[in-house]
Design goal:
Low-confidence stretches: none
Distance between the termini: 52 Å
CATH superfamily of the largest domain: HUPs
Number of strands: 11
Number of domains: 3
Largest sheet: 6 strands, mixed
Strand order of the largest sheet: 1-6-5-2-3-4
CATH class of the largest domain: Alpha Beta
CATH topology of the largest domain: Rossmann fold
Shape: globular
Radius of gyration: 23 Å
Structural class: alpha/beta
Number of helices: 19
Length: 398
């Protein structure tokens, strides 16, 4: 495949949504050279669903793929067992083989919504990491010192607070770094919270006699509650959410993040986004701009026709106060606490959010046309709930 060296396209790739590049001059020269580069992206299957925050790096990988470069996708089925400590102030739980297997069931199917999988080199890092013996592991870990690790921001915070940092967590960046050796990557991309791990790839490549990869780190995306989008917090918008659900979740995004979502989650040109910024500054209702945003994002993953239907349903539901025909459905056993069912299925981020909503009269039983006031209500029958102003959920009793 021919490699495209259009400088305007390359400049946009190097700037849009990008927090930092190391080393920028080297990467730009390589992109202009016409040589096909191996662009590495690693994803650990810590959740069964890919959300918009994770999709940012996949979309960036797609832009490199469109220029003719080789997309190298590493599924971290081995590193997921350890858990990436990046940007975490507590140890991630170590996943079991069964959990990883379940999370992986529809991973590539979801990724295919973004990447042309026929042109992607897919690797599982268990292919090489699971075969390492003790001497090989020792050689790899010798790339780093304890002093380097304890200076890492999140580790330092935990140590300063008297909290434990486990030795296995020190292994993670070394193993992710070895992935770069295994696939001989020229460039690795990731979220800004991955900077330490991506730099580890350069260190390990140098130790193993390879040319050091360049690094590109991208902006992080805030979720529906304003915190970093994270499956563990339940504030995510999944790329396989039903169109109506995806649309309504995007409408919950805080107004402050509208432009960021346009930049990171859509294909709208930067020139057009600048015009949208001017519209907001000139007093256009953010709700109207956000409706356009929701339409754009739903259209990317479900097509324009379904995006139009989702918008129509949203208008009928929230502007005309009608109940949507389609809403999220979850199953629950009789006797389960409703609060636990909603948190377990990522409808709510925590039990404290549930308590806040109940105390604020924010949970409504639409079947009985009543407000739920019992925080300890249990599942005894099917329920149709309105949660807050914009979310509708059906609970189906097993």
């Amino acid at each position: 495949m021919e490699v495209i060296t259009d400088e305007k396209k390359i400049d946009e790739i190097l700037t849009r949504g990008v927090e930092d590049i190391f080393i920028r001059e080297n990467l730009k020269a390589n992109l202009l050279s016409g040589k096909q580069l191996r662009i590495k992206l690693g994803i650990d299957p810590t959740s069964p669903f890919i959300h918009l925050g994770r999709a940012i790096t996949l979309q960036k990988l797609k832009t490199f793929q469109d220029l003719g470069h080789k997309a190298v996708l590493i599924i971290g089925d081995f590193t997921a067992k350890i858990g990436d400590p990046s940007d975490k102030l507590e140890k991630r739980p170590m996943l079991t083989n069964e959990q990883i297997k379940n999370n992986l069931k529809k991973y590539l199917e979801q990724i295919s919504l973004i990447l042309d999988m026929k042109k992607v080199e897919v690797k599982y890092n268990s292919e090489w990491l699971s075969k390492m013996n003790i001497p090989e592991l020792g050689r790899l870990l010798e790339c780093f010192t304890v002093q380097q690790m304890v200076k890492r921001r999140n580790f330092k915070k935990r140590l300063d607070a008297g909290e434990d940092v486990f030795m296995v967590e020190f292994m993670y960046p070394a193993m992710q770094g070895y992935d770069s050796v295994a696939v001989k990557s020229d460039l690795e991309i990731g979220g800004f919270d991955q900077l330490f791990n991506l730099k580890a790839g350069r260190t390990v490549q140098k130790r193993y006699g390879q040319k050091e990869q360049d690094i590109m780190v991208l902006s992080m995306l805030e979720g529906t509650d304003g915190r970093k989008m994270s499956s563990s917090w339940g504030n995510v918008i999944s790329i396989v959410d039903k169109p109506d659900i995806m649309y309504s979740k995007i409408m919950e995004v805080k107004d402050d993040f509208i432009l960021k979502y346009f930049t990171l989650c859509t294909n709208i040109s930067l020139f057009e986004i600048d015009n949208i910024k001017k519209e907001l500054e000139n007093g256009t209702n953010p709700r109207d701009i956000k409706m356009r945003l929701a339409h754009e994002i739903v259209g990317i993953y479900h097509g324009n026709k379904k995006a139009e239907l989702a918008e129509e349903n949203f208008v009928n539901t929230f502007q005309k106060k009608e109940i949507p025909d389609e809403m999220e459905e979850i199953k629950a056993d009789a006797g389960e606490l409703l609060s636990e069912v909603l948190v377990k299925n990522n409808i709510l981020s925590s039990k404290s959010e549930w308590r806040r909503l109940v105390l604020g009269n924010g949970v409504h039983d639409l079947d009985k046309n009543s407000t739920i006031i019992d925080q300890n209500i249990k599942i005894v029958e099917n329920l149709t709930l309105k949660i807050g102003k914009k979310r509708f959920v059906k609970i189906l009793k097993n």
